[in-house]
Structures are given as C-alpha cells and as structure tokens.
Give the backbone structure.
Amino acid sequence: MSVHAAPRPLTLGDLAAKKDAGDPIVMVTAYDHPSAQIVEEAGVDLVLVGDSAAMTVLGYTSTVPVTIDEMLMLTRAVRRGLTAPLLVGDLPFGSYEASDELAVATAQRFVKEAGCDLVKIERGGSTVERARAIVAAGIPVVGHVGLTPQNATALGGYRAQGRTAEAALAVIDDALALQDAGCALLVIEAVPAEVTAALMPLLRIPVIGIGAGADADGQVLVLHDLLGIYGGPAAKFVKRYADLRSAAIAGVGEYAREVRSGAYPAVEHTYAMPADEAERLHGLLEGR
Ligand code: KIV
C-alpha cells in the first residue's frame, strides 16, 4: 500500500532560503476553490487572492469597488483548496488607508476569517505606517509598489511607473520604507527592468516582480491572464500560457449544438429502468 504524505506547508523561511539560493519564487493569483487546487498541483510557492478579482471574476471595471466581504468570500474558497503554498490576502481599496486601527482590524479579518498567511497592501506614503501597524499586530505584510492599481487614477492610468530617474527613486524609496516597516515580501509592478535591477541590491526581503523585468526574486501573474481566460486587453508583461477562453467557448458551443441536434444526451449519459419495471409502470399508468 502506498501512502502519500500531504505536502508540507511552506513558510516565510522557505521563501528567504529560495532568495538566498537564487531559486526563483513562483506566485500566481487564484480566486476560487478549483483554481486553488490547480495552482497547488502545478507547484507554485505563493497564491495571491488579488483584488484583480474585481475585474477578472466579478465584472467590475477596476479594482476599486470590490468590498471586504467579496474578497473574504473568494479568499475562503481558495484557502479550502490549498495545503502547501502560502496564501496572501489582498486588502481592498478603502479597507486600510484611513488609520492604523482600521488596517489592523481588516488584516485580522483576512487572517481569522479566511486563513491568510500574509496580507498585501498597496503604495508607499501613508501605507508604510499601516504596514508597520499590521506587522506589529503579528501579521506578515506584502508591500506593493510601482503601478498600484488601487490608485491608478492618481498615477495617470494603468501605465508603467518609474520611467525617469526621479520617479524611479520614488519607487525605490517606497520599497525601502516598506522593508523598514517590517514587510516580509514586496511586489513591484510595471516598472522598467533598470529600476528593479537598481533596487535588488538594496533589499533583504524577497521581491516578486510583475512587469518589472527578470531581476526580481520571483514573478507573479494573474491566473486569468496567463491561462487566457480573461477577455479584456492584456498588459505588455502578460504572457499567455494557454487559451482557455477559446477552449471554453468551443466546448460550450459544441454542447449547445448537440443539445439542439439531439446528439446529447446519448445512451451512455442516460439512466435506464429494468424492462419489467418499465412495463409495470406503463400498466400502472394505464390503470389510472
Ligand atoms: O490584485 C492582483 O492580482 C495583484 C497582482 C497583480 C500583484 O495585485
């Protein structure tokens, strides 16, 4: 009899060891139970229930409207599908900025009600103090710098950040401040590769890039982008590893054709009654 041991849950120490060994860290988003199981089986290290869910699965036009309760519902579903990867919850816009107390209370909900290992918050500025407060409350924090979609309007839209020396320095300063505040991990999004290359020697904590070149300690992509599920426009940094949208449309289209033609359901999809019982049923109906 073969006994399969359950995969060992990863720790922050494992991520630090990967960084030290130059072993790239793999992070991906997931928003529901089946996709959590898929990314776990594929062997990723970190799973982010990103507020990108607002656009990829909830149909909003930006990440701004998604609520704490919507994010918690999705995050709990992902938690139930994961064993080994670390789970990162994404605190939505408006759920942490106003005060340290609000930030800690929201982060606690993601840990207590959805089983998150870490929580992610966006920007430098006042977010640095919120990160410090959440860390002081005993919850590991992921900082997020560069393009921070929650305040895309203030950044001039969904566009690469840090493209001048001064703007790059501002991104680097945000990253350093978040590390000093105690962040365990940093996500850097949509900056020129030169910015990441300049930042890397200055940081002790693992850095996960998205549209930030190849120098980060790891990469993250949105699941619906990399699998080709999301139908909207894709950013420059997105690489599609599958075309599930086309496969899904073809599959549902074929089902619709077969229902309309009568090809589905066939005998093999149909329950049968023993012949004598069918005969008795007809007799019972006739006797009514
Ligand atoms: O919400 C999200 O999916 C993210 C990643 C793009 C890092 O923040």
